[in-house]
Each structure stands twice: as structure tokens, then as C-alpha cells.
Amino acid sequence: MDQTDVIFQLILHGGNARSLAMEAIAQAKSKDLQGAQDALNRAGEELSLAHQNQTALIQKEVSGEKTEISMLLIHAQDHLMNAMTIKDLATEFVELYGHIHAGKEAGV
């Protein structure tokens, strides 16, 4: 796979992870905590795939093959880092919504 393909894989999997994390928040908000957890798990899988592609780029550079820094690569890295942050926040939101819903059901 050439560098451009790897970069597009970063964008693809990062975008998928971000969408799944946002889906998890929406599901938790509507009391579907199992669906939210499933979406978070799938987001984690997408981040893992993105990370594998990022690692491939890093390994090439470490072995002496220069990585061309392009706007596309910067965009891909930005996509990935945002996805990671949003997934972390979504995990907290899902937990928080779980507590809120449990409190409402208990009459708190």
C-alpha cells in the first residue's frame, strides 16, 4: 500500500470511529446503554485499524524511508486525534448517562 492509500485509511477509520463515538452518545442519551457500549466497542476497533496504518507510516520512516508531509497527511492525523478524543469523551458521556438514567429510575 502506498503512502496515499495509508493516509486515506487513516481518514476512513478515524472518521468511522468518530461517527461511532457520537452514535454511542446519542444511544446512551436515549437510554440504549447496550447499544452505546456496542458503538464504543466498534469505535475502538476502528481506532485500532487507524493506528495500524499510522504505525506503518512510522515504521517506514524509522527504516529510513522519508515520509512526505502533505496537507492530506496533516488532515489524516487531525482526523485520527479528534476521533481518539471524541471516543474518550463519549466513554465518559455513556457512563454519565447511565448514572443519570439509573437515578431517574430510582426516583432520585
From TrEMBL:
Cofactor(s) for this protein? Mg(2+)
Q: What keyword terms does UniProt attach to this protein?
A: Magnesium, Metal-binding, Phosphotransferase system, Sugar transport, Transferase, Transport
Output the PANTHER family linked to this UniProt entry: PTS SYSTEM N,N'-DIACETYLCHITOBIOSE-SPECIFIC EIIA COMPONENT (PTHR34382:SF7)
- List the active site: H75
- Record text on cofactor binding: Binds 1 Mg(2+) ion per trimer.
- The protein, known as: Lichenan-specific phosphotransferase enzyme IIA component
Phosphohistidine sites (modified residues): H75
Binding residues annotated for Mg(2+), in chain numbering: D78
InterPro entries (alphabetical): PTS_IIA_lac/cel, PTS_IIA_lac/cel_sf
* Species annotation: Brevibacillus reuszeri
Q: A GO biological process this protein is involved in? A: phosphoenolpyruvate-dependent sugar phosphotransferase system
